[in-house]
Amino acid sequence: MFPKLIRTLSVSVVLAAPVVALIAESTLAAQYLTIWNNNDLAIVDLYVSSSNSSYWGRDRLGSSVLEQDQDTSITISGNSCVYDVKAVYEDGTYDTGAVDFCNGGGSIEFFGYGGNNY
Predict the structure, then answer these.
(1) I need a surface site. Which of 26, 42, 89, 99 has the fewest CB within 10 A?
(2) Residue 37 located in a structural domain
(3) Is residue 13 part of a domain?
């Protein structure tokens, strides 16, 4: 009886492994975020973090600048639905927003003149 139980458990584990791998892969799938700069100022720094995090992370633009009326796409790796986005303008002001990938989000637009926050 004991060997049969071990064999049954072994077969169950082997059959379940691909399902677990697929679930893990889908939750860590890359998501693409498009940022539109319809502001009068260039975006010089761009930060994206999970809304659950208090840490902004690294500047996603690096040495690049997102000029007026330009857009760019970045890859987001993670399994969160909602991400906060912070755009810092050339004059030091900034705007923040959020995107919800689970409800059809995938782009964010910054517009106006300068940021609302200092």
Answers:
(1) 26
(2) yes
(3) no
Residue 90 has pLDDT above 70, yes or no: yes
- Asked if the structure places residue 59 within a domain, the reply is yes
What CATH number should be reported for the domain holding residue 101? 2.60.40.2890
* Mean pLDDT (whole number) for 4-14: 54
Q: Is residue 15 part of a domain?
A: no
| One-letter amino acid for residue 74 of the chain | I
Query: Any idea what the Cα angle at residue 67 is, between residues 54 and 88, rounded to 5°?
Result: 25
| Interval 8-19 mean pLDDT | 50
pLDDT of 17 over the 60 cut: no
